[in-house]
Design brief:
It is built from 17 helices and 15 strands. It is α+β, with helices and mostly antiparallel strands and 456 residues long. The protein folds into three domains: 131 residues, no CATH class; 111 residues, Roll (Chitinase A, domain 3), CATH 3.10.50.40; 98 residues, Chitinase A, domain 3 (Roll). The radius of gyration is 25 Å and the shape is flat. About 4% of the residues have low confidence.
Length: 456
């Protein structure tokens, strides 16, 4: 049993950020009856989870594994969570929030805009983040448990060499062309005219509400948060920390029935009305107006800053990596010296093929290794406009795998195999520490070697 592979399968739907939920939920007609199909201690697996996970593969254009394998992967995921509770393994809330922000940014990039996400899911960005936060938290706990279990596993160069030499020469993998690309990003600034226009519109709406017009009706008509607008701007109850700080701070400063001033956040400009508080939760409505990032963004300051950095880098006065760490507004890659990373592997080597972002592909197609591009337009993960300069650091031509050029890739395989062995030993022991129950309808699935329908 390849535990690493099964854990990866169970995390797939989380990493896809609900794409399976979207394709499955919108494709159903009538009422779907949900039920519990497995239990691991106090963690339950619903039939809907299994179906959503299956649908997430199809939504991403991949062939889904067999449902028995998916169910086993979900049970393994729950075992890790159950053991984490027993062993008091936790993750920091800020780490969860940062991960969620990054994945939401990727989702915005994939859908094209926040508005498209809201229309697709029928939920506000804020509510969608609240729902997905628990999934991301579970993902981080599972990853921490994996590190706890197999973190002490080490490999030696001799083990890597021995593994490589065991591969038949005619079975060595073919490595496609790969590149290392760095970028430094500077965001455009919303023009004063654009800001003033939105602030004045919201002030006018506030005045109308103060004179007796229904806030909910105004939200339905004018708010650009389409998920909440159809419900009169109603965001439901929000836990502290679920909303961006600017929004939450303004909302919590209000008394029930009061409206805020005009609040600016990364999502745009808000007019907030507090409905009620309940312990650590608060219930609010809002009207959101967003800047027009295409027409209302001034790119001149960003372009000048990047031009100056490019001059310093090309004259060897400043190293690209230092310039990226100190100046790039793409914080996800800045600490890595601006190097772009493959979202699946976390590595800085990007495969040079059709899977690459087309804008990036065509930009480097006109460059040579070592070149620094002129400032070019860039769309941030949150949908805002920016400029960036690219550094074509390196290119590896396609070739048959060898130890000299591909040592790190081969070492990763050896380390993964060794960690999997450690995980398998841990799981053999852990099965006796938790209660596992699988419904009889899955009796033909061999789940962790259990006689299904029985408990352990």
């Amino acid at each position: 049993m390849n535990i690493n592979k099964l854990i990866a399968i169970s995390l797939f739907a989380i990493l896809s950020l609900g794409s399976g939920l979207l394709s499955y939920g919108q494709g159903q007609k009538g009422v779907t009856i949900d039920k519990i199909i497995a239990r691991v201690d106090n963690h339950y697996i619903l039939s809907s989870e299994l179906e959503e996970m299956y649908a997430s593969y199809k939504a991403n254009g991949q062939k889904p594994p067999e449902k028995c394998q998916l169910l086993e992967s979900l049970i393994i995921n729950k075992m890790l969570l159950a053991k984490a509770e027993i062993d008091s393994v936790t993750v920091d809330d800020k780490e969860v929030d940062n991960e969620l922000d990054g994945k939401m940014g990727y989702m915005i990039q994939r859908f094209g805009s926040e508005k498209n996400i809201v229309e697709a899911y029928g939920k506000s960005i804020e509510n969608l983040k609240t729902e997905l936060r628990n999934q991301v938290k579970d993902q981080k706990i599972v990853e921490k448990m994996q590190r706890t279990i197999s973190g002490e596993v080490k490999i030696t160069p001799n083990e890597v060499r021995k593994f490589f030499n065991s591969i038949p020469k005619d079975s060595l993998p073919y490595i496609p062309a790969e590149v290392e690309i760095g970028h430094i990003v500077r965001k455009g600034t919303v023009t004063k005219e654009q800001k003033d226009k939105l602030v004045n519109q919201l002030k006018d709406l506030k005045t109308r509400a103060e004179k007796g017009e229904d806030f909910a009706m105004l939200a339905q008509i004018y708010s650009e948060d389409l998920g909440s607008a159809k419900n009169g701007g109603d965001l439901g109850f929000s836990k502290r920390g679920a909303m961006v700080p600017e929004f939450e701070g303004a909302a919590l400063a209000l008394k029930p029935g009061e409206m805020s001033g005009i609040i600016e956040s990364q999502f745009g400009f808000h007019l907030i009305k507090l409905i009620e508080t309940r312990g650590a939760e608060y219930h609010s409505r809002h009207i959101l107006l967003r800047p027009d990032y295409n027409k209302g963004t001034d790119m001149s300051t960003a372009t000048r800053a990047l031009d100056s950095l490019r001059t310093l880098i090309t004259t060897d006065t400043l190293k690209f990596a230092r310039a990226a760490r100190d100046n790039s507004e793409d914080k996800e890659n800045a600490e890595a010296g601006g190097l772009l990373q493959d979202r699946n592997t976390g590595q800085a080597h990007l495969t040079l093929d059709a899977s690459m972002d087309p804008a990036l592909y065509f930009a480097i197609d006109t460059m040579k290794v070592g070149d620094i591009s002129m400032p070019i337009s860039y769309r941030m993960d949150d949908g805002s406009s920016a400029m960036r300069i690219l550094w074509y650091k390196s290119k590896t031509e396609p070739h048959t795998a060898n130890l000299k050029d591909d040592y790190e890739k081969i070492a990763d395989i050896v380390l993964s195999n060794k960690r999997n062995n450690a995980l398998e030993k841990w799981f053999t022991k852990a099965q006796g520490d938790v209660f596992i129950s699988v419904e009889p309808e899955y009796k033909d699935c061999k789940i962790l070697g259990l006689e299904n329908g029985d408990d352990t």
